Amino acid sequence: MIESDLEIFLRHEHDPENVKRSHFKPRDRDHFMTHWHTKVLGVPGNFVQTALADGEVAGGAVAWTQDGQRFLGYVFGREFWGRGIGTRTVRLFLEREQTRPLYADPYIGNTGSWKLLERLGFEREGTEAYGEDEHVMYVLR
């Protein structure tokens, strides 16, 4: 991962369809960069991987520890959806990130993310409320 990848991740976060699917309110550039530098890249033990497709940054995946549990998150640009890039990226990511159990909690309306996780062996464990939003909890053992 290189610094310029963050600008592309920010663009992905602001894509209206990504916002709809993730149900995540996009941050302004300063907050986004501060978050990434202090809470993602600045935390030992976090693992970040950029995905390239056709020489372009397609998205990325990250693993972090929260309340004693290891989580997986990812985002991909809309122009790369439906091409298997997300599945291949996360599959390769999981070869390097071997902590188990590994959790993922996509927004309940993000069925594309559910399918990706299920293809890779994650099992649905239930739902979790984050404020007014409901998320599906998946685990890979």
SSE topology sketch:
Layout: H1 3-14, H2 16-22, H3 29-40, E1 47-53, E2 56-66, E3 69-76, H4 85-96, E4 102-104, H5 111-119, E5 123-130, E6 133-140
Task: Write out key terms for the chains shown.
single chain; 141 residues; alpha+beta; Aminopeptidase; 6-stranded mixed sheet; 5 helices; GNAT_dom; transferase
Give structural notes.
By secondary structure, the protein is of the alpha+beta class. It has a domain at 3-99: Aminopeptidase (3-Layer(aba) Sandwich), CATH 3.40.630.30. It contains 5 helices and 6 strands. It has helices spanning 3-14, 16-22, 29-40, 85-96, 111-119, and strands spanning 47-53, 56-66, 69-76, 102-104, 123-130, 133-140. It has a 6-stranded mixed beta sheet with strand order 1-2-3-4-6-5, with helices on both faces. β2 (56-66) and β3 form a beta hairpin. The radius of gyration is 14 Å and the shape is globular. The model has no long low-confidence stretch (mean pLDDT 96).
Structure, briefly:
The protein contains five helices and six strands. The chain is of the alpha+beta class and 141 residues long.
The CATH class of the domain at 3-99 is identified as Alpha Beta
The CATH topology of the domain at 3-99 is Aminopeptidase
Strand content: 25-35%
The biggest beta sheet reads: 6 strands, mixed
| Rounded mean pLDDT score | 96
CATH-defined superfamily of the domain at 3-99: Gcn5-related N-acetyltransferase (GNAT)
Return residue spans where pLDDT drops below 50 for at least 5 consecutive residues.
Answer: none
Q: List how many beta strands DSSP finds.
A: 6
Rg, Å, rounded: 14 Å
- Helix content bin: 25-40%
